[in-house]
Amino acid sequence: MNIIKKSDFIESIATALQYISYYHSEDFILAMKRAYELEESAPAKDAILQILSSSKLSAYGKRPLCQDTGIITVFVKQGMDVQWESSLTLEEMVNEGVRRAYLDVLNPLRASIVEDPLGRRVNTKDNTPAITHISLVKGETLQVIVAAKGGGSENKAHLKMLNPSDNFVDHILETIPKMGAGWCPPGVLGIGVGGTADKAVLLAKESLMSPIDIQQLQDLGPSTKLEELRLELYEKINKLGIGAQGLGGLTTVLDVKILEYPTHAASLPVAIIPNCAANRHIDFNLDGSGPAKFYPPNLDLWPKEVWKPNESVTKVNLNDITKEDISKWAVGQSLLLSGKILTARDAAHKKLKKIAELNEKLPDDLDLKGRFVYYVGPVDAVGDEVVGPAGPTTASRMDCYTKLMLDHYGVLGMIGKAERGPETVATIQKFEATYLIAIGGSAFLVSQAIKSAKVVAFPELGMEAIYEFVVENMPVTVAVDKNGQSIHEIGVKKWQEILVNR
Question: Among 181, 284, 367, 406, who pairs with 418 as Cys (CB 3.0-4.6 Å)?
Answer without folding.
Answer: 181
